[in-house]
Amino acid sequence: MQIVVYGIGGVGGYFGGKLAKTNHKVTFIARGRHLEAIQKNGLQVKSIYGDFVAAPNSVTSDVRSIETPDLVLVCTKSWQVSDVARDIKPILEENTMVLPLQNGADNADKLMEVLGGKHVIGGLCRIISFIESPGVIRHKAFHPQVMFGELDNEKSERIQHLKKIFDEAGFDNLIADDIGAAVWKKFLFICTISGIGALTRSEMGGMRENPFVMDIMRQTASEILLLARAKGINLTQKDVDAVFEGIAKQDPHTTASMQRDIMEGKPSELEDFNGYVVREAIKYGVDVPVNEFIYNLLLLQEKRARSKY
């Protein structure tokens, strides 16, 4: 199988690195010093489950130089997905699968707007990892898992085949019974913690110890649940409860990726998290005052960050 991993950060680096150790032909799309380091030394992955070095068949920044892929893993930030779709569109063939693995609720929608529906598979992943230095990925926490499925939840032949590929790579993977609900369950968690984490600039342990902050997070999650129900997504109060059970178990030093980006003055996924909730709430007539508050306060920093890039 010809596999392209677009974006070799924490997500693409770990799962792409695992795929690169199989007999499948794997190409990494990377940029700058990270690209140069991988070309020279391979991709070094430092993992809680054991370090490894992956040597993909090719590493490039030029999508036009790539052979037609059977599978594209999109592992960029959510705000980059539409640009990625336009970039890869010329190299796709009729049966190419495109699987987004980043945070956010509407990544499959963004891909379909550019590529149409036949290529796109729903997906998400669970991992805490990041670029430690050029050519080096640090997997810090979480048991890595990819969850995926057809957008209509059909257990198709290509989905079954994709599971075999992921099994060969040796990472935990699961065909979702309801991929839409699965994506929203993760979105519920990540959106609940990211915005307030960015505002407080605090680690998970500090936020857990503050009853006022925890109440704000509960209100954030409750609003997302209302929106999901309005959109016909199969989320329940049990899913909200599960989010806070997860928060209670998090390492006290945990921070969210959107939070880290905002704190470092980088463009973030704010528009894809709280911003998305605010925009969709207007469409569906749902009141989300807490998400609106968080979004508009962080938007000032987001605009400053984007003016520099």
Automatic annotation (TrEMBL):
Pathway: Cofactor biosynthesis; (R)-pantothenate biosynthesis; (R)-pantoate from 3-methyl-2-oxobutanoate: step 2/2. Residues 179-298 form the Ketopantoate reductase C-terminal domain. Keywords: NADP, Oxidoreductase, Pantothenate biosynthesis. InterPro entries: 6-PGluconate_DH-like_C_sf, 6PGD_dom2, ApbA, KPA_reductase, KPR-Related, KPR_N, NAD(P)-bd_dom_sf. Its EC number is 1.1.1.169. The keyword Oxidoreductase applies. Residues 3-152 form the Ketopantoate reductase N-terminal domain. The keyword DNA-binding does not apply. It catalyses: (R)-pantoate + NADP(+) = 2-dehydropantoate + NADPH + H(+). It holds the Pfam family ApbA. Belongs to the ketopantoate reductase family. Catalyzes the NADPH-dependent reduction of ketopantoate into pantoic acid. This is 2-dehydropantoate 2-reductase.
